[in-house]
Write a structure and sequence with these properties.
This protein has two helices and six strands, in the order H-E-E-E-E-H-E-E. With 158 residues, the chain is largely without helices or strands. It is rod-shaped.
């Protein structure tokens, strides 16, 4: 049916010279586009956050320094941090809490010259039941068994 419709249109058009039914002649297409819009020239330059060129043909595009903002980054899984947990320069990746914890320094206990801040060591199994506390040197220890040895002032022992 579509072909019949085309046939009716093409047979209704007057033909003169070298015109082919159903085809447009160059004079019917309108003015020639400017050279900058003709095929083969392509984009000559990108500006803004993404830059390339100037020039014609294949161009490498570059994202401007400091142009990628947090909303432009890929979405991350819940409770992850961007980081690099390799021992070399690498692209950032989404790290889990376990991976981030492994990167942090442990607490350096005070051995007389001051300690260093860091992650507190994990107490061993049964430490809470044994009443252990974290000493300044970074060790989990049971309080002295001797208890209260001397009271002074207005205190009353129960």
């Amino acid at each position: 049916m579509f072909q019949k419709y085309l046939m009716r249109i093409s047979t209704a058009l007057p033909f003169a010279g070298n015109r082919v039914p159903g085809r447009m002649m160059p004079s019917q297409l309108g003015p020639t586009p400017p050279a900058s819009a003709q095929a083969g020239t392509g984009i000559t330059q990108l500006t803004g956050d993404v830059t390339a060129g100037p020039g014609s043909g294949a161009q490498s595009a570059t994202i401007a320094a400091h142009a990628v903002t947090n909303p432009k980054l890929a979405q991350m899984a819940a409770n992850t941090l961007k980081g690099n947990n390799t021992s070399a320069t690498a692209n950032a990746t989404d790290l889990t809490a376990t991976q981030v914890t492994a990167m942090l320094n442990p607490m350096g206990g005070d051995s007389g010259s001051g300690g260093t801040k860091g992650l507190v060591p994990v107490p061993s199994a049964g430490a809470a039941a044994a009443g252990k506390y974290l000493q300044a040197n970074g060790a989990w220890t049971v309080p002295p068994a001797s208890g209260i040895t001397r009271l002074t002032g207005d205190l009353t022992a129960l």
